[in-house]
Amino acid sequence: MAESPSPNAALSVNLHQQTPIPLDAEFTVAPGEILALIGPSGSGKSTALRSIAGLYAPSRARIVCNGAIWLDRDAGINLPARARRVGMVFQSYALFPHLTAAENVSEALGDLPAEARRDRARALLARVHLDGLEDRRPAELSGGEQQRVAVARALARRPDVLLLDEPFSAVDRVTRRRLRRELAELRRELPMPVILVTHDLDDVVRLADRICVMRRGQILQTGPVEQVMTRPSSAEIAELLDLAGDVPAVRQPRGSA
Amino acid sequence: MDWEALWLSLRLGGLTVLLLLPLSIALGRFLAMRPFRGKAFVEAAIALPLVLPPTVLGFYLLVAFGSATWLGQIYERLFGHTLVFTFEGLLAASVIINIPFAVQPAQRAFEAIALDLRDAAATCGLSWWRSLRRIELPLAWPGILTGMVLAFAHTLGEFGVVLMVGGNIPGETKTVAIAIYDRVQAFDNEAAGRMAALLLLISLAAIALSFALTKRVVRRYG
Amino acid sequence: MKLKLLGLAVLLGNAVFGMQAARAQDVPVIAAASDLQFALTEVADAFAKESKHEVKLAFGSSGNFFRQIQQSAPFQMFLSADEQFVLDLAANGFTEGDGVLYAIGRIAIVAPHGSPLVAYGGLAGLKQALADGMVTKFAIANPEHAPYGRRAEEALRHAGLWEPIKDKLVMGENVSQAAQFAVSGAAQGGIIAYSLALAPEIAKLGNSALIPADWHEPLRQRMALIKRAGETAQAFYAFMQGPAARGIMRRYGFLLPGETS
Known about the structure:
The structure holds 3 protein chains of 3 kinds.
Chain A: E1 11-17, E2 23-29, E3 34-38, H1 45-53, E4 60-65, E5 68-72, E6 77-78, E7 86-89, H2 101-107, H3 114-127, H4 143-156, E8 161-165, H5 173-186, E9 194-198, H6 201-207, E10 210-215, E11 218-224, H7 225-230, H8 235-240
Helix pairs in contact in A: 2-3, 2-4, 3-4
Chain B: H1 3-32, H2 39-51, H3 54-65, H4 70-79, H5 87-97, H6 99-111, H7 115-123, H8 128-157, H9 160-166, H10 176-185, H11 189-221
Helix pairs in contact in B: 1-5, 1-6, 1-8, 1-10, 2-6, 3-9, 5-9, 6-8, 7-8, 8-11, 10-11
Chain C: H1 2-24, E1 29-33, H2 37-51, E2 56-60, H3 62-70, E3 77-79, H4 83-91, E4 100-105, E5 107-112, H5 122-131, E6 138-141, H6 147-158, H7 162-165, E7 169-172, H8 175-183, E8 189-193, H9 194-198, H10 200-203, E9 206-210, E10 219-225, H11 231-240, H12 243-251
Parallel strand pairs in C: 1-2, 1-3, 6-7, 6-8
Antiparallel strand pairs in C: 3-10, 4-10, 5-8, 5-9
Helix pairs in contact in C: 2-12
């Protein structure tokens, strides 16, 4: 079920490609809104995320953020990742192993003088509840702590878009719940559009405003979370969302209109 | 002990390494990035000096640098003397034949850097230069250094190419390896033995150092 | 950081251009045929004592030096074991004039101690040893570019030995290497320069016997200054023709121009 584009969309994404990775996706995200991209592996959600980040450019694509054209293959525009103000949390966190937590965050603050960088890095780490651990290297931090550093680093640049690629998948359930709660608190202060790629329906339910179900590069359905979860537009989607049982507080929709 | 030859060899090794350092970083990094058409060809070309017999290399270098060629003549006009049979000619030959020793470990080191680290650097807004300096080099330097150590040791031991391109000119192209050969021919086995033992020690030290460096990489981030 | 780069640049410049400075110091490099390995070293020492000037000696096969000098190798003087090389260089303008004959060389058969071959038997003895199957390896310098090798071949042919022995030959790249092979046990013997056979380092390892001079072309050894040779080289060139040098050369079995054996 397609959705009419939101009039105050901060980010609009249009991705089309046949090989090597099939993509046929269009969606928009409003400022402050969290869009979850969900789907089985190979559904193209990570590729979509990387395209927005500037790490990949599908053959026909157009990405506009806050009025600035980041990618327009037809017009020959393709801003490299460093030129786009994106913040990205990688699935493996991709923390620089030889730098401390504070240094990891300051790397993203390159255009500030050293003093300001240090202060802002510490402030960001405090915001993600890591004060006291600024001088530890990633190897000396737990999985949950590393994830928080990754989030702080992603936010350091005050990005125009925040991208999260399965940010909770590498930790145990208890830690995942805690991190999710912290992110839910943090998001209230986040003015930018946020895209969350995940397998986990709990993430969707507890964090996302809208959901975009993908399969083999195509969007099957987009819409507010509650709406898609209670009224999936096809059995396939219902199956993908695994609505047969696990998700709490959502009625069984099998075969309903 | 031919001190002049030893100093010559050390200078040759040191300068070769100095010149190869930026080249190995640039090429190693370039080859570690995404695949491109013709990459296999480039890698094979870089590896070529490893398998070519030294005399073949020496022959082609002699032909390329000698005063009969345009390259040799341009050089001669610029500097007043030929490239062959001079220290500079030896240096040029040494840099060329040591390319695989320097580039391959550097390439492996850059390849070992997790792909998403580079992606993360990009999303943090780092320019390619800052990414190289702050992220990649600190992680790749043990491999790069290994390449330098190997190139240095290899230069000290190089014989066939040195003889053909450099001749055996004391103070100019008579390296320790050549000096050993020279002393044997003069039936001076004691001097030859002393220098050979020294080269052996240096080679052992080089191997030990490169092993230690490799272990360091594994320990740090493995 | 900048200071380090500067320091590095200074080191680099010094290392490379230090070479230029050394060249300017006029310690000439003299190219000499390998048969002069010991004789010329003594001459150079005598020269250094008398004139307080040093020369650097590079030994190798005359053919090799001939080629290198044509490619502008930085030698300032060339002592060849075959005068044709010098004359050819002169004809092509590489030398100061035609040079001068400095010695007539001789070849000798050598055999290390314990070899089934006995040197004083000469080539006849070699013939016998070959027939008896006692000789499997015999060393000479490579006739392609070493004059002493060529003369060895001529002498062997003269004695009718070339055919039977040629498959058993080990060729030295120059006559010094041939001497190496001949007395170190790698071969049962060889034909090398008489001047090498007389040198104490080699004489102690085996026995030798002169081969009659009329069994081969004469080893007319010629030397010349290379174009633009410096003062020290010129002084050495003159010294080489003086009585002190001639005396040393005589001791190493060379015949001197103007003298008969």
